[in-house]
Specification:
Blueprint lengths: L1 H17 L4 H10 L2 H15 L1 H25 L4 H7 L2 H4 L20 H24 L3 H4 L1 H19 L5 H17 L1
Helix pairs in contact: 2-9, 3-4, 4-7, 7-9, 7-10, 9-10
Length: 186
């Protein structure tokens, strides 16, 4: 497990040092995927467009939020910024990482709630948009746009969480996979 965590730190360090100009973008993506925003912004907007879809988003977000908390306390994964110092990794390996406000999260980190909850809650929205697009066009290229946008957004969310040292890459992957499964079942 140490090698997985070390590789995650190296990935975060590379992201931070190779793409320093994208810091504000990563912060914005993390804000957009904050589970609180599902209830404050996404739910009202989706509910306004479609009552049924809005209610689906609300309940999937609510149940997935609860399941994420259960998973976090059962799996109890470390947070990268804290692990680097508590494990002695930073004393053994010279690293250049930056702390952000979201790096200060002290609860368990596995799986990523931003990825899991947002991925699950936005799944039915993506399916509804895909269905709408499919009914209005014959072009297979246009039909893949909603799914591609969904996947691109979640990839950006995952990278933002690694960049900000809120999660290790394996925690992000666990959140993405769990979110997709819960969204598809919802």
């Amino acid at each position: 497990m140490e090698s997985t965590l070390s590789a995650g730190i190296m990935m975060a360090e590379a992201l931070q040092n190779q793409l320093p100009g994208l810091e504000n973008m990563w912060l914005w993506v993390t804000f957009l995927a904050d589970p609180k925003n599902l209830f404050h912004f996404y739910f009202p907007a989706v509910y306004y467009a479609s009552r049924r879809l809005g209610i689906s988003l609300f309940w999937i977000a609510f149940i997935t939020e609860w399941l994420n908390l259960v998973f976090k306390w059962v799996l109890f994964g470390d947070r990268p910024f804290w692990w680097v110092h508590e494990s002695g990794y930073s004393a053994q390996t010279p690293i250049q990482i930056h702390q952000f406000p979201s790096s200060c999260e002290t609860g368990p980190g596995s799986p990523s709630g931003h990825c899991m909850i947002t991925g699950a809650a936005l799944w039915p929205v993506m399916i509804a948009i895909s269905s709408q697009v499919a009914s209005q066009t014959r072009s297979p290229w246009v039909r893949v746009i909603p799914g591609l946008a969904y996947c691109t957004f979640l990839l950006a969310v995952g990278l933002s969480r690694v960049f900000l040292l809120a999660h290790f890459p394996h925690q992000v992957l666990a959140g993405l996979l769990a979110g997709e499964q819960l969204g598809a079942k919802g």
